[in-house]
Amino acid sequence: MTRLGVVGAGVMGTGVAQNFAEHGHHVVLVDRSKEALVRAEEEVRRYERFGHLLGAGSAGGRDGMAERVAYATELEALSDVDFVVENITEDWDLKREVYPRLDGICRETTPFAANTSAIPITRIASATERPELVLGIHFMNPVPMKHTVEVIRGWHTAQSTVDTALALLGEVGKEGVLVDDAPGFVSNRVLMLTINEAVFLVQDRVAPAEDVDRIFRSCFGHPMGPLATADLIGLDTILQSIEVLHDSFNDSKYRPCPLLKQMVAAGLHGRKSGKGFYDYS
Q1: What are the transmembrane regions (predicted)?
Q2: Any catalytic annotation for residue 97?
Q3: Active site includes 19?
């Protein structure tokens, strides 16, 4: 593997591009928004200069990494990549549009990895003519600093596809934990419930966000509380993920908190918007 395609230049897609470029891979980062690509390029160059301050990677690996990332607004730029990681928003309608296009553009042997929080991999694979080459790779944020990822096997995913993905992850210093396909997988089936219930605590005036997070940090040793984690991930992504779980399981325990829905509607999406449960302005 020397040439990786990354679809989506948001926080996660940019992090994936950084991580692979840092370890010598050439990356084509695609997003239909030119503004998103400009922000992504700025972040890649900032990481090349200052990544050592975060304790991430090695200075030697970052040397020249920005030159290993190319940027494009059309999926056709991925026609000759060896592996694709898709990172677009948690919206099945959008993903359902992208995968058939990738199927027609990429080589028949190119695996597709969905970096999704909750959407089942088998459903994603059904939108392609290569379901045996589709799997999930759930990267954690920030990507360059998180060394463990979920690897999700869909109904049709071939063992050779899993082996290829695990080998590729190993090349960039990551350990993949293989799980079977189910909405939310392991991490987000638990995490989204935790965050959603924490939002209910704020809505019901049991405790302010600061104290909810303080209890999780101080009592359980969590580096971040659930509401600070929600701000980091993005409250819009949290809402989309919990809605996928609610629709998939038809279980009321996954009902989205009204306060979460109201904050998303108000544009309070967390760090990326400057304000969520905390103010980042």
Answers
A1: none
A2: no
A3: no
